[in-house]
Amino acid sequence: MNTYPGERLGLPVSGPGSVARVGRRIGALAIDYAAATIIATAFFGFDQFALPTEAGLSQFAPMMVFAVLQILFIPTIGGSPGHRILGMRVVRLDGAWVGLWRPIVRTLLLIVVVPAVIWDADQRGLHDKAIGTLLIRA
């Protein structure tokens, strides 16, 4: 039986290289989505009184910007801006570079939400398990 998340992966219990805990993950998600909303509002505008049929694609603009931020920054700086601000990195289990396709698949699964909230004993969401990555403390 594992005594802490990441033990069976050979990761430390705390500090750099340990599994990023839920509080940091939620904080990073809030930072990323707030940034995406601000950027989307600046470029696409915001009409709080528009009906979904009137708003068109602008209602999805924050989610699209969020996806672009994830896909752009995970392979380049090792995580989204929220991850990096809160001291986390997305890494492959084998230590190699995450590449270009993994952030795309990870982001698509993250947007669906369900894979991100179902975890294993190591607190790896299904979106990370599917592509062989892990969110660790930097």
TrEMBL record:
Main location: membrane
Record has Transmembrane as a keyword: yes
Localisation per UniProt entry: Cell membrane
Membrane topology recorded in Swiss-Prot or TrEMBL: Multi-pass membrane protein
Transmembrane portions of the chain: 26-46, 58-78
Keyword annotations from UniProtKB, A to Z: Cell membrane, Membrane, Transmembrane, Transmembrane helix
Pfam families: RDD (PF06271)
Highest taxon in the source lineage: Bacteria
Keyword DNA repair part of the UniProt annotation: no
Domain RDD stretches: 19-131
Protein name: RDD family protein
Provenance organism: Microbacterium luteolum (Aureobacterium luteolum)
